[in-house]
């Protein structure tokens, strides 16, 4: 018989846990007040009675298994179990001794209901989610998939659980996808797009979120959500194709318009020359030569803008590039009665194609000079904008550009000059972009134009 002294009995009657003790024959030797409430029995009903006789339903449940384990192996046990006759979940701790078994227990039915409801809630989110939801172990093997995932790639849940993600990723995207997965394993949530391979072999474009699964402060796997964006990608491709076709159509129309004008003039002069005296033909030859030169200029600029060029980047001195350009344009500036003012700072070498940048600066300063037929000033300033960037500013005092047309600058064949093609500015924008730089234009009618170029310092 388990012996409990009087003081201990008083304490056991006051604790909030149910408590009872059993002798080696599984008979109740003590039951506290809380235990009588939880078991719906009085002390007189239980003291001296066999637990398995009083609660026969417990024989086939975890209660019997765990109590016998504690006594036979002389180890404490802890478990939760449901007792159907009372419709109660119990949390139980049992401690063996040489004389029998001491059992502490609590009614945890309400807590279990909350946990069960929460589990069902998350299970519903998993099962009913319209997006594909899945989880991996740390090696990238599938642990679970929802029905939407089965529908997305055509595999059954059983087939997924025999796979890792690597065979299901397009070859060209596998390295990138693996890098994102490894970052998630290291605790960083990832958002990216990749291509998954359907069971029938076709590619599915997906937007993926990977996030770490953390249990007791340890990352134990990766959770994933994938959304099918194949139709979105197809729509984007169609829009890009449509925009390209539209751009080709606009460019073709512009080229035809620009070349047709001189060709029409040439055709007209040829017809006139048939009926003209010999001495007049010389005048026509001069005009025709000018028109042919214009056609040659247009086609030349088109080729320069469209032809891919091998870029030989090297570290060059931006001060020297600017000085060379201004020296080259001084004679033209004198013809237009324009003064070029240069201000420079010490700047580090920049990684560039020097001749291409010279082409840009020549084009921009020349535009500024030509914008002032009655003379004026062009201000060129080279400065260190930030630690990683230099700034080149070119400012003129010309007629300026109206606000509604400023956004058109850089489009082919858009120009404010009478005989311009707009291809020079388009090429300039293209060159600056290839140098990872930016070019901004500010202008005010009657006040002039300021162009700012920012180039990275490597």
What gyration radius follows from the Cα positions, in whole Å?
43 Å
Write down the overall mean pLDDT.
Answer: 82
CATH topology term of the largest domain: Heat Shock Protein 90
Distance between the termini: 87 Å
Strand order of the largest sheet: 2-1-5-4-3
Major β-sheet profile: 5 strands, antiparallel
* Proportion of residues in extended strands: 25-35%
Topology:
Elements: H1 6-14, E1 18-23, E2 28-31, H2 33-39, H3 43-46, H4 51-54, H5 62-73, E3 77-83, E4 88-97, E5 100-107, H6 109-128, E6 132-136, E7 142-145, H7 147-153, H8 157-160, H9 171-185, E8 190-197, E9 203-215, E10 218-228, H10 230-274, H11 278-306, E11 314-316, H12 318-335, E12 338-344, E13 350-352, H13 354-370, E14 376-386, E15 389-396, H14 423-434, E16 438-444, E17 448-456
Parallel strand pairs: 12-14
Antiparallel strand pairs: 1-2, 1-5, 3-4, 4-5, 6-7, 6-10, 8-9, 9-10, 11-13, 14-15, 15-17, 16-17
In summary, what is this structure?
By secondary structure, the chain is an alpha+beta fold. It has helices at 6-14, 33-39, 43-46, 51-54, 62-73, 109-128, 147-153, 157-160, 171-185, 230-274, 278-306, 318-335, 354-370, 423-434, and strands spanning 18-23, 28-31, 77-83, 88-97, 100-107, 132-136, 142-145, 190-197, 203-215, 218-228, 314-316, 338-344, 350-352, 376-386, 389-396, 438-444, 448-456.
């Amino acid at each position: 018989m388990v012996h409990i002294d009087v003081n201990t009995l008083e304490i056991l009657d006051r604790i909030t846990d149910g408590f009872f003790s059993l002798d080696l024959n599984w008979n109740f030797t003590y039951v506290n007040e809380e235990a009588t409430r939880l078991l719906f029995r009085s002390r007189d009903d239980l003291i001296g009675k066999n637990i398995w006789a009083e609660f026969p339903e417990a024989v086939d449940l975890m209660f019997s298994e765990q109590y016998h384990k504690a006594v036979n192996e002389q180890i404490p046990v802890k478990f939760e179990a449901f007792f159907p006759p009372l419709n109660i979940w119990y949390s139980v701790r049992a401690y063996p001794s040489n004389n029998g078994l001491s059992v502490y227990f609590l009614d945890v039915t309400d807590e279990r209901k909350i946990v069960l409801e929460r589990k069902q809630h998350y299970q519903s989110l998993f099962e009913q989610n319209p997006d594909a939801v899945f989880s991996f172990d740390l090696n990238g093997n599938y642990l679970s998939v929802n029905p939407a995932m089965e529908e997305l790639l055509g595999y059954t849940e059983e087939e997924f659980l025999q796979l890792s993600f690597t065979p299901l990723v397009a070859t060209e995207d596998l390295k990138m996808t693996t890098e994102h997965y490894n970052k998630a394993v290291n605790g960083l949530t990832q958002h990216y797009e990749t291509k998954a391979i359907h069971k029938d072999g076709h590619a599915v474009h997906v937007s993926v979120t990977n996030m770490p699964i953390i249990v007791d402060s340890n990352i134990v796997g990766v959770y994933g959500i994938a959304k099918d964006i194949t139709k979105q990608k197809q729509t984007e491709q169609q829009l890009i194709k449509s925009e390209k076709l539209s751009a080709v159509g606009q460019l073709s129309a512009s080229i035809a318009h620009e070349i047709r004008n001189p060709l029409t003039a040439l055709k007209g002069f040829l017809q006139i020359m048939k009926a003209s005296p010999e001495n007049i033909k010389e005048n026509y030859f001069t005009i025709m030569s000018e028109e042919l030169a214009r056609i040659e200029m247009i086609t030349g600029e088109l080729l320069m803008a469209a032809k891919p060029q091998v870029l030989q980047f090297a570290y060059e001195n931006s001060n020297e590039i600017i000085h060379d350009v201004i020296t080259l344009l001084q004679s033209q500036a004198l013809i237009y009665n324009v003064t070029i003012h240069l201000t420079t700072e010490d700047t580090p070498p920049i990684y560039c194609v020097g001749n291409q940048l010279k082409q840009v600066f020549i084009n921009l300063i020349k535009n500024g000079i030509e914008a002032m037929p009655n003379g004026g000033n062009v201000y060129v300033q080279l400065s260190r904008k930030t630690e990683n960037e230099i700034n080149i500013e070119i400012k003129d005092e010309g007629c300026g550009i109206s606000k509604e047309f400023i956004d058109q600058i850089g489009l082919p064949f858009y120009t404010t000059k009478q005989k311009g093609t707009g291809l020079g500015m388009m090429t300039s924008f293209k060159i600056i972009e290839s140098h990872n730089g930016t070019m901004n234009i500010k202008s005010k009618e009657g006040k002039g134009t300021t162009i700012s170029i920012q180039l990275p310092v490597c």
